[in-house]
Fold:
Amino acid sequence: KAGVTQTPRYLIKTRGQQVTLSCSPISGHRSVSWYQQTPGQGLQFLFEYFSETQRNKGNFPGRFSGRQFSNSRSEMNVSTLELGDSALYLCASSPDYPSDTDTQYFGPGTRLTVL
Amino acid sequence: AQKVTQAQTEISVVEKEDVTLDCVYETRDTTYYLFWYKQPPSGELVFLIRRNSFDEQNEISGRYSWNFQKSTSSFNFTITASQVVDSAVYFCALSPRANSGGYQKVTFGIGTKLQVIP
Structure:
């Protein structure tokens, strides 16, 4: 099975621009979660999508949004970029088993640099 | 509010030594999940375990073991007979557990950097 893929791997943008990051989960996985990792704030949960619906959300401003398509692929969008948005953005997929044995699989991440 | 404390920022051990990474958490939720993740130098995060707060049994997976003690709000991770490949940053995390399922708002610790010296 192919793993979780994220595109692009690296991205450079300037302040005020917007950006869209893509995540393709493992085939058959229905849940996709997004995380932001920065040196200052560490790892933070952005949101989780399941069956094309945002099921859970972290504490990020409305500039951060996402969506999930019928094939479970997910995109996240950041509008009006700020310098502080420079980070590694990680995506994870999981089968979302009803039991507590669910496991997440992470992609390699997208490194976003805002100049 | 949720909080995860990993007091050890960096640990160095010699290969084959056992090492325990500490994790202490705070939450007002009655049901919750605890996690451990590994981030090797390559940067890709690896999910190691998710533990339901109802289940206080210790977990063992190969050289890895986890000790969950609700009474002390701790979820410690032990690597037995450490290897160089275990060198990584390890994150402990916490989230509420709701009937709606999925990965709720997850709070991460700052991570413990483990260096295993050959």
Remarks:
- Residues 11 and 41 of chain B are 15 Å apart (CA to CA).
- Chain B touches chain A at residues 33, 42-47, 50, 52, 55, 91, 93, 95, 100-111 (CB under 8 Å).
- The longest strand of chain B covers residues 88-96.
- Chain B has a mean pLDDT of 92.
